[in-house]
Amino acid sequence: MTERRPLLAAGAALLLARARPAAAQPVDTARAASFIQATGRELVAAINGGGGVTQRRDQVAAILRRAVDVEGVGRFILGRYWRVATPEEQAQYMRLFEETLIRNLSARFGEYQGVRFSLGRSQQRTEDDALVNTIVERPNLAPFSLDWRVGEVGGQPRVVDVIAEGTSLRLTTRSEYSAVISRNGGRVAALLDAMRNQVAQLAAREGR
Amino acid sequence: MRHAPLRRLLPAALALGLAGGLLAGCATLPPPDDKDALEEFRANNDPAEPFNRAMYDVHQAIDTAVLRPVAVAYRAVVPPPVRTGVSNVLSNLRSPVILMNDALQGETERFGITLGRFMINSTLGVGGIFDVASRFGLVPHTEDFGQTFAVAGVEEGPYLFIPILGPSNPRDLVGFAAGIAADPFNWLTFGNRDLLDALSYARAGVTVVSTRESLLDTLDDVQRTSLDPYATLRSAYRQQRAREIANTGSGAVPAAPQGLGTGLGNTTEGGQP
Fold it and tell me: What is the value of pTM for the model shown?
């Protein structure tokens, strides 16, 4: 029982080492970490800055649009249904996905007033991404761990996943979207309708 | 009044889960020529999905009518330091079971941490009300029999959703039962069985309320933002369990400090002293 984990780890390391040469664009861990640190600093400044809720949220949204590989994340999440979708559906999906993602994330981060943010202890690299661990602290609440998966897109480091306390945003969302599609007879259009609805609801609640 | 309430509930839940899974029929397997669909079916690990979704609806009904309103009231009425104290006492009561599982997994360092935490918090922390040990650098973690089974190589089995308990699977459900059976606070009677029963009921009730309160924001968020909360919870639970089993948590906060199988990290309220 005790030997199982090191063995598994060794096996995984071996597999990774073998896969390494095939990886297209490896990301430098230090570069990824400094990118996350810079983005985090911008986000914290926007969140804790003056101005109203709406203004803060817009600033956060602008930073996220720059930092996140929205297209890559969107395609990953739609997964196998990307190929099934018509070009028109793909375009609509991308528009709705960006809207949903940015609205959800900026609404979330917008609530984190008084937030502090620091690089965590473990920075590791995977096959073709770097995983940057950060600790988010808010007043009167327990700190929590937020991992940022950073990939290289067009020569620039970009966020490709956010992992809150071990739950990956893109994996969870992929499961959610694919459930909506498969429960509606495999129709991508059903997902688009649901997303349109949700965007309308989010907009109504945020009053913009 | 011979057994602790949860111990009595469990066999029933287990039987319900297994029988239901068989009776309600399984999700239809995708056609064998659709490789992607088959792959997804396997990845979801939810052959009893129709049954599980029905159980999820039952849970949501109970949650909307009882659990959530009670948790909201608890948050509104009880001030934060008291709630933290309650949560700390419950965590401390779970220490012996965590300790057993640290030992079974051969995690000597974590065993030492759990033992140290239990001794310090039970004494200096006044019966576990204050998490003094965290100030000494002894960071809490969770461990349960489901995780120990996993480390020993037991497969999780098909995904299950159990009302009130939340996301689970046969391995974790048996582990949950084992945790209750092995918990010394459930069988040390001190010669007074009625008192033990009363205390066990109280502890089970407080655990449910405290856990639900700690998950208020997270679950509200899931309900608000997810297009399919059932699928979101399923995915989150399996990711969280994988992380807990691998013990790769950041150490910032324990992944599920309250110990119920919700699979969602408690990012709202922590076990701070």
Answer: 0.81
